[in-house]
Amino acid sequence: MSEARALSVVLDQELLALNRVVGALRRCNLRVSSMTLGPAGNGGETAGAACLTVVIEGDARMAEMMAKKLRKLTGVRNAEAYAVDASPSTGKATMEGTGLRVYYDADADLNRLSRRTVAVIGYGSQGHAHALNLHESGISVIVGLRPDGPSWAKAKADGLDVRPFADAAAAADVIMILVPDQHARAVYEAAVAAHVRAGKTLMFAHGFNVHYKEIVPPAGVDVSMVAPKSPGHLVRSEYQAGRGVPALVAVAQDASGHALADALAYATGIGCTRAGVLPTTFREETESDLFGEQVVLCGGVPALIKAGFETLVAAGYAPELAYFECLHELKLIVDLMYRGGMKFMRYSISDTAEYGDYTRGPRIVTPAVRAEMQQILADIRSGAFAREWIDEARAGAPNFQRLRQAERHHLIEEVGARLRAMMPWSEEGKATAQARADAGPAAARRRSDPPRVTTR
Ligand code: NAP
Ligand code: MG
Fold it and tell me: What pLDDT is recorded for position 453?
């Protein structure tokens, strides 16, 4: 059984360029199992380009060679090969091992949205990416915002049709809610709910409000979710590069009978079916997302970094060294895991580090820590966490603001900012370089000045 590989080709929107690509594929006698042609976005290097995705049967080497060949053709701006696990009997892609269905471009029909108007409510991290990507995919988009907020001018400057929340919701067939989760209910009740009528579709990028019944949509409307698994700026930049980020799709209410097909069309419009869209439920997405961010990503990891840093500093080690060991180097390790999993990371680190991993790691994540993880999961599943966070937000978030302020003044933040000024790629490093450039040659001569370090 040969593998399925996808070729993603960004080319000039000209029949001649398409003809050259198709000719090259034909000359190589490749078996093509699907082919999709769509716009590649309007920004940067993909301005005025089309994206052709071809799924072929062949191995990685053959696909790479083909991509290389295509990149040389006049009118082809880029061509990349990547793996797709497709079951040849059905032509439907599934995840190896688990058999979980994955939806790609070929499984979705963007035209389902062509006669409908989409209101994107909110223009922040996700909102700006969804609105611009949909717009450039040829979908009619209205951005819904409060006229006195900072996003209003930004969305206008980006050339979009911007209207107050209620006007946008009234004019749209599909309403995507992309304001912060803790404010979604208030926005929905004040301006959106009155316009959510039978036949319309209400969409979310996170299951929180529907799962915890903060927002209870009326019967007769479709309720679905397309949740990109990445921050909005990546949803945007990957789309512009002719690619996309993976996403989850779920349907909470299927009044029309085609809620899933419509949600997949939306996912295509923002570029996610180029990368792959995995099915889930509102409950599974909400609970696993909250658990991941609390226990590992945003709760567990920063707490581990701080605890390690504080332990070294309390024992008399330089905060600068502690910063490098406990925070800075984390990126190198995460990058290795991201590229090739734990095995790849362990192949790269020293044997001493790997031995420490196996023997000391379990002493950090003890049975008591695991029990706490289970308690956190229980609070998520019972709705206790959601209740606490909603009450906190409704009370003006006093605890949240206090904690936010306190964390900003932690020693690791102060030491880190000074060290990062030495690193040209960091935010502080860029600011230092800019300040030097602004100050002229005299300041540039002081480039080798040592950074101010913490005294102990
Ligand atoms: P965000 O960037 O914080 O949203 C900001 C936008 O919401 C701005 O346009 C802002 O308008 C508006 N807004 C903020 N507070 C408001 C209020 N009280 N009333 C009315 N409008 C308000 O949100 P986000 O991170 O994109 O998240 C949107 C949804 O996507 C959430 O459901 C989230 O869970 C989900 N999601 C996020 C990510 C991510 O990485 N960020 C990833 C996947 C899913 P103004 O300029 O007027 O303040
Ligand atoms: Mg998440």
Answer: 44
| Contact criterion met (CB below 8 Å) for 436 and 447 | yes
Q: What is the 3-state secondary structure (H, E, C) of 379-423?
A: HHHHCHHHHHHHHHHHCCCHHHHHHHHHHHCCHHHHHHHHHHCCC
The 10s digit of each residue's pLDDT in 179-232 is: 999 999 999 999 999 999 999 999 999 999 999 999 999 999 999 999 999 999
Say how many Å lie between the CA of residue 293 and the centre of ligand 2.
Answer: 6
Which ligand sits closest to the CA of 225? 1
Cβ–Cβ < 8 Å for 201, 259: yes
146 lines ligand 1 (CB under 6 A): yes
Give the model confidence (pLDDT) of 291-335 as tens digits. 999 999 999 999 999 999 999 999 999 999 999 999 999 999 999
CA 290 – ligand 2 centroid, Å: 7
Residue with CA nearest ligand 1 atom 4: 124
232 lines ligand 1 (CB under 6 A): yes
What is the share, in percent, of the chain residues with pLDDT greater than 70?
Answer: 91
Selection from 210, 183, 213, 231 nearest residue 397 by Cα:
183
> Does the annotation mark 206 as catalytic?
yes
Q: Choose between 353 and 27: higher pLDDT.
A: 353
Contact between 232 and 126 (Cβ < 8 Å): yes
Ligand in closest contact with the CA of 292: 2
- Which of 121, 123, 125, when mutated, tests ligand 1's pocket best, judged by the most ligand atoms within 8 Å of its CB? 125
pTM score: 0.76
- Say how many Å lie between the CA of residue 292 and the centre of ligand 2: 7
Q: Concatenated DSSP letters for 157-202?
A: HTT-EEEEHHHHHHH-SEEEE-S-HHHHHHHIIIIIGGG--TT-EE
Residue 355 DSSP label: H
215 lines ligand 1 (CB under 6 A): no
Question: What amino acid occupies position 40?
Answer: A
Closest CA to 327 of 351, 345, 303: 303
Q: What is the pLDDT of residues 91-102, one digit of tens each?
A: 356 776 667 899
Which ligand 1 atom lies nearest to the CA of residue 204? 32
